[in-house]
Amino acid sequence: MEIRKLDTYESPPMELLLLADPSEQIVKEYLKRGQCYIAEMDNTILAVYVLLLTRPETVELVNIAVNENHQGKGLGKKIVQHAINNAKYQGYKTIEIGTGNSSMGQLALYQKCGFRIVGIDRDFFIKHYTDEIFENGIQCRDMIRLSQDL
Q1: pTM: predicted TM-score of the whole model, two decimal places
Q2: Measured distance CA(1)–CA(122) in Å, rounded
């Protein structure tokens, strides 16, 4: 498996990106400003992530998605670790991530990868998304913000 930055002439894997963020409009907006990376094997995209500069020396991991046929095999952890190492390599001092209050698996993964909860953006998903989002039988309302010093 190779993880590489998406070339400017390549189309981003929207179907995969929309697994992590259901708003195509929001995804397109941060793709314009961010760096998109893909994990591929045998010309098949297995996973994707996007890094977005938010403040001086700070980058946010705004989208992580693994192809549904490849979930549960440790690929998500490899992608998060690649993003962390990539941010360090680029000279960032802090990496941040946000996820929904209903995203139990993602919250566990990010903490296993060294992220710490630093705040809650109350009603983020109510204010910024037109359709209700449900995961694990829970309405996704709040964004749990996590951070890691690099």
Answers
A1: 0.91
A2: 38
